[in-house]
Amino acid sequence: MRLDMLNSRRTFLQAVTRTLMLPALALVTLLLVSQPAIGLTELRGTVADSQGQGLAGIAVRFYGPREENVGDRAELAQTTTDDQGRFRLEVDRGSGELLELEGPEGTGRLRIDGQPLPLELTYPVRTTVVLLHDNDLHFDFNHQEAFGEMVQDVRARYEHVFLLNAGDVFIRRPSQWSEPTLEFYARASRDIIAAMNRFGYDALTLGNHEMDYHEDATLQALSAAEFPLLVANVEITTDLLPPVEPYTVLRMNNDLTVAVLGLGRAVTKEGVRARDPIATAREYVHLADEHDIFVGLTHIGYRTDQQLAEAIGVLDVIIGGHSHTMLEEAVLVNGVLIAQTRGTSGAVNPDRPKYLGKIKLTLENGRIIDKQGQAFTITGTEGS
């Protein structure tokens, strides 16, 4: 009898609770149905050719952010331009950042962050990439203020800029140090890596002077680098050098990628063994298909760079070092643009010039249509 009474009371309470909840549920449902979409934006604009003529039939797709900078983006909306090149998309603009345009000349992507509406887009999508580079600093990272101003100016004028070094930032011979002590070498090597960190270098290919290590001072300095250390054709088994990578991939904010392959020239040193750079490069030709730009960042000398270009024509650019060749204008060999700056040699000298190379690549829908490069001499008196 007592159990039946408890069950009846429980049933009654449940019925009352359901009755009380129904109006609340109905109100929530009504709010969800009636509430307009929050944050939606009518993303509209036109797609035209280089002459300003509207293009019909261009597919326009809107993509969300890349998760942790890897993987594919989610497609959030798509449409097609009308006969005057106009398009409209209803999107949550806060959840996306990239537009893709696809037409008869291929596919191109571009960022739209902060651009005013209506968007005025040009097809094919054109992208300019600048590769700044130097080589063979040999502890003479001189005229840093003028160098920094030049790098800052380029970064302000172009959206996609990368800074690369083709090796031999250290000096291995004590006879060329300002002081013939390990303490000087350790301090100078730490200082030059710290300067490269400040200027935001994107990659360094190890030169023979880096691989001719001195006790643990070389390891300590290179381990502080905030950029990838590259060399594909040198096997390093000693604990007195840090781990290296064969290549690195630099990604632009419009999803274009630059594969940078490191090739070096080793020295006779325990735990360091070099292979033929050209034979090694053949193992990485797949990078040309997987990425939009394929760069060889080499420390093998200008003559070998020419041979590399003849053998591996899928390279877009070779940025070289080791031979201290001053190419005031980058040269084309087998369609590969080869660039190198003079660098410095001999004993440390803070009065020497600093050299900087600038390569400008123009792409349409991810394909290079023009490439050119030149080298500049920095003396510290440019602004005086």
Give a short overview:
This protein has helices spanning 2-34, 144-157, 182-199, 208-211, 217-223, 277-282, 286-290, 302-311, and strands at 40-48, 59-63, 75-80, 86-92, 98-103, 106-111, 119-122, 126-134, 160-165, 203-205, 229-230, 234-236, 247-251, 257-263, 272-274, 293-298, 317-319, 331-333, 336-339, 354-364, 367-378. It is of the alpha/beta class.
Q: Which descriptors apply to this entry?
A:
single chain, 384 residues, alpha/beta, Immunoglobulin-like, Purple Acid Phosphatase, chain A, domain 2, 6-stranded mixed sheet, disordered N terminus
Written as H for each helix and E for each strand, in order along the chain, the element string is: HEEEEEEEEHEHEHHEEEEEHHEHEEEEE
Q: Assign the CATH class of the largest domain.
A: Alpha Beta
Question: How does the overall form come out from the CA principal axes?
Answer: elongated
Low-confidence stretches: 1-38
Mean pLDDT: 89
Please tally the helical runs, counting DSSP H or I stretches of 4 or more residues: 8
Share of helical residues: 25-40%
Q: Could you explain the architecture of this structure?
A:
By secondary structure, the chain is of the alpha/beta class. It folds into 2 domains: 84 residues, Immunoglobulin-like (Sandwich), CATH 2.60.40.1120; 252 residues, Purple Acid Phosphatase, chain A, domain 2 (4-Layer Sandwich). The chain is built from 8 helices and 21 strands. The strands form 5 sheets. The chain has a 6-stranded mixed beta sheet with strand order 11-10-9-8-20-21, covered by helices on one side. Strands 13-14-16-17-19-18 form a 6-stranded mixed beta sheet. It has a 4-stranded antiparallel beta sheet with strand order 3-2-5-6, with no helix packed on it. Helix 3 runs parallel beside helix 5. The radius of gyration is 29 Å and the shape is elongated. The N and C termini lie far apart (105 Å).
